[in-house]
Structures are given as structure tokens and as C-alpha cells.
Amino acid sequence: MKAVRTGLAKALDRPDPAIRFYLFHGPDEAGSRSLAGQLLRGLGNADKFVVLGQVIKSDPATLADEAGAISLFGGKRAIWVEPAGDEIAEGVAALLEAPASESSVIAVAGSLRKTSALLKLAETHPAAWSHISYVPEGRDLERIVIDLGREQGLRVSPDLARRIASAAAGNQAIALQELAKFALYLGADTDNARDLDPDTVDILGADSAEADLMRIGDLALAGRMDLLLDELGRLPHGGSEAVPILRALQRRLLMLAPLRARIERGERVDAVMTSMGKALFWKDKPLIERLLSVWPAERLSEAASRVASLERQIMLRPLADEAALGETLVTLARAARR
């Protein structure tokens, strides 16, 4: 069934136990992902168990089997499929016809055609649910930032909401990360609401000097070895920048992965770029187009895994942070040049 806008919050916060399959689709993939995260919380903070679309395509019974399995640790879990497309339609059909299901299945897709088999299933089957996300603009985007801030215990003025939305390039997931960071800094939560002030945004905001950290990862992904080595040489000694740089790089990889997957499913690069709308800052368009042409989906996944692994190593045990960071970024740059 299609989601009704007026009942969206209720559907996500208090999910219908009869629904087995949730499809979030549309041009605003960050918005879809954010809503899917809200659904996870509504499902009792269920653990996210990721199943790749290609695995379901190879064996359609996989989805029903995973959804029907009982958690080994007794907690709630949800099956998460991203990026999703018509390649999982047969698996979803099997899921919906199965006699029982222990876990809900959540699929996050980009834009789907009206003739999409997956979309048809989600919109017509009584045990399925779908929602389309459009890229918000203007006051709608400001309202979303204010609402997201309220969930973090922050009272956000319209002026600051506009600034945060602009710094996040219309990406709701990034805006939420920013607001969570502000809330942690101010000690805010839903039981202890605080006013978000301009000074906090000046110090910590994505449009501050911290945004420069994204540049280093972009140079590595673009294979710009000379400029990358120059930037690495400018980093302060002590390795304190390693984790912020790795997290910025992870955000870039997570943005690229679903876009590249759409291209490999047959969409044109220019169509994928256009679908991002204002979520993509105009100055970044040449870079993103280049990265999408250089990095296949499989290599993006490998890069994201490597970067996440390095972050965990740095956080959990002493490492020569600068050397480990530099080695990883140089390796990525060499891979891009190949």
C-alpha cells in the first residue's frame, strides 16, 4: 500500500505488525534512508541485518529465509536491503507469500519507474508498504531540519535551520549528523532541550573549517596523488585529524555507492546526477561525476569496508594514526589511478 502523508509519522513510529515489507524510494535517497532509520526505532530499535540485492537476485528464497529466521540473541532485528531495485522483486514476492515472518524487511531504493515490478508489489500487496521521497526545498527543508533538531533535543531557529540545510547540501542524513553533534556538544536531549546558538554552529558546523577534511578523501578517491601528498603534509602532527577525515570519507563513499549501483543497473550518469537536485552542491558536480566513472560499486564497497576498519582500529587500540591514514589514502589514490 502507498503511504499517506498525514499518517506517515504514525506508520513509522507504530508500525502495523501485518506489514512485512517496507519500500522507501524516490529521488531523495537521504530522506528515504532517514525515514527508514525512524522505522527501525519504531520497530523497537531493531538491529539492522544487511542483505545485498545481488544475493537476493541470485537466490530469491534468501529474503524469506532471513526474515523467517529467529534471532540467535533474542532481540528484534530488521532485514535491510540497499540499494534495492527490481532485482529483488522475486525475493520480495516469496517473502510476502511465506506462511510467517519473524523480521520486517526494509528496502531503500532510488527513483523507480512506474512499471517497476518491485514498486507494483509494494503498492498493491496488503502486507507491503511504500513511500516516495522527493528532495525538499525552501521552507520544507527548513521545517525538516527544525523537526530533526527537536528529536535531538534542540530548539533550532529558522535562520539556523536554513544555514544547516545549506551546509548539508539538502541531504537530510548529513543534517541529522550535524544536529546530533550539536546536541552532544550542548548536552541536549529530548528530556533536556537546549537552544541551538550561532556560536555552536560556527565552531562545529559542516560549513566551518571541518568541511576541509572532506577534500583530503576526495583527492584520494579522484587519484590526485600529488595534491593528496601535499595535503597530508599539511596535517598537524599527532594524528588527531585521522578519525574526522575517515568519517568524512565514509560519508562520501556512502553517498556514491547507491548512485553507482543505479548506473550499473542501466541508468545514465547524467540522469542519476540530475535526480540528486539540490542535494548535490553545484561545485561538486564535476568531482562526483568523475568519481562515479572511476569507482565501480564493488570497489566502493571494498573502500568503505577498509576505511571503517581503520577507524575502528584507531579508536580501539593505539596506532600510528598519521601513517595508517596516509597509507590508506595513498592506496585509494593508486586504485583510482588504475
Automatic annotation (TrEMBL):
Known EC number: 2.7.7.7
Keywords for this protein: DNA replication, DNA-directed DNA polymerase, Nucleotidyltransferase, Transferase
InterPro entries referenced in this protein's UniProt entry, alphabetically: DNA_pol3_clamp-load_cplx_C (IPR008921), DNA_polIII_delta (IPR005790), P-loop_NTPase (IPR027417)
Span of the signal peptide: none
Catalytic reaction equation(s): DNA(n) + a 2'-deoxyribonucleoside 5'-triphosphate = DNA(n+1) + diphosphate
Superkingdom, taxonomy of origin: Bacteria
PANTHER family, A to Z: DNA POLYMERASE III SUBUNIT DELTA (PTHR34388)
Family: Belongs to the DNA polymerase HolA subunit family.
Name listed for the protein in its UniProt record: DNA-directed DNA polymerase
Species of provenance: Sphingomonas brevis
